[in-house]
Amino acid sequence: MRKGGExxxxxxxxxxxxxxxxxxxxxxxxxxxxKVKSSxxxxxxxxxxxxxxxxxxxxxxxxLSLCDRSKMEHPILLGRKFIQDKFVVDVSKFDMSRxxxxxxxxxxxxxxxxxxx
Length: 117
Prior knowledge:
Largest sheet: 4 strands, antiparallel
Distance between the termini: 15 Å
Low-confidence stretches: 109-117
Oligomer: single chain
Helix content: 10-25%
Mean pLDDT: 79
Structural class: mainly beta
Shape: globular
Radius of gyration: 15 Å
Number of helices: 3
Number of strands: 7
């Protein structure tokens, strides 16, 4: 999709079966496409966007690759490059963010504050 020469991508953040699904369509500027190897060893091209994620009350700008995760257990994976120098990972703990509802994707909220969406 193009608007004023800039390329955009439209997507829904969660699968309709997810408890937090709200049906909202999100439109973000397309940064590009990247060749990514999945955990199954398959290589595919994915669209890359920049957005905000809120984790334990703090907001971070992050690049995300978009793919269909409807059949996966977790709707988003945070990469090691993002986690590095920001968090300490305690392998004895499990899924703390879900228990505390501490992760929220700020797909359009930050853009609205800046007047971009």
